[in-house]
Predict the structure.
Amino acid sequence: MAIPTIVWSQNHIRIIDQRKLPLQLKFVTCKNVSQLWRAIRTLAVRGAPALGAAAAFGVLLGLKQIKTKERKSFDAQIKKLCHYIGSSRPTAVNLFNALDRMQCILRDHPDASVLKARKLLFQEAMAIFEEDRWVCRQMGIHGAKLIKNGSRILTICNAGSLATVDFGTALGVMYSAKKAGKKFKVFACETRPLLQGARLTAWELTREKVDTTLVCDSMAASLMAQGQIDIIFAGADRIASNGDTANKIGTYSLAVLAHYHRIPFYIVAPEMTFDKNIQSGKQIVIEQRDGKEITFLAGKRIAPLGVKTYNPSFDVTPHRLITGIVTEKGIIRPSFKKNIYKHFIGHDR
Ligand code: MRU
């Protein structure tokens, strides 16, 4: 199986450097929080669940700089640290949910000494890491039931082992189906501008010996029109309480196309990717990235100097276009507003 995307090892974080894939498999070592911040911002580590683990480990890195023995000051410094880590990328809610969990541990143990608080933070970070490994495998089991022998699957961006600790959400479903002996083929959208589909998804699927065909994003419509796609799986960066889902730019186009061609469109994401504080996708902050990601390709300028750019990293797929959301607890079907609550809480509101 996959090499872990991110690990905590001897007081530092080791991550696969996704900027260098697929040409080189190299690792980055983050020894302090600003190195981690940069690794997140420049997408050395990326994908919502991997960002959750990175944020939790980032707090552990930050602990190295905190010298106080006094709890009030310790908690204040952790809060500042979490704020800094959270400023790296705005859309993937796993990052913020992980930071909230780290701060919650402190709130739940107000009387613990600083030494004890440090231990609790370490345990919580490790729990976030281990949980991701478990929830991805659970989503794999539930989602694999949707894949039939001979299914032709379309996916976008990279929602695989590289976007999580080690297994994947949308691609995890495919790994589980493969393990169950199903034969299927995958079309991977290249995912402009940064080509996570071409560089990362194609890399990991071919390594796992999954039958994979790489297509340019603009080819998805034609594939669907020809009846060559049976089902679509995508990951998520943030899911609102009504099911509206932010994911890599281009996901919304696939969902609209899927609706027109009557192709089931599934999101695969764990509870950590749900933002229960927001009612709809309108409240999701979409990261805007440097226009150079569009005007340059593989380090070479491809557009004229002076041209304007528009480079949102994500779009929001309205819940009406989603057939189901696969989570670690099963598959949520419409009506999402009612069923998301029931799915996680166990009863109607
Ligand atoms: O900008 P990225 O590469 O971090 O975007 C990642 C995605 O959009 C993924 O599809 C999403 O995080 C789900 S990952 C399991």
User: Anything to note?
Assistant: The chain has a mean pLDDT of 97. The longest strand covers residues 12-16.
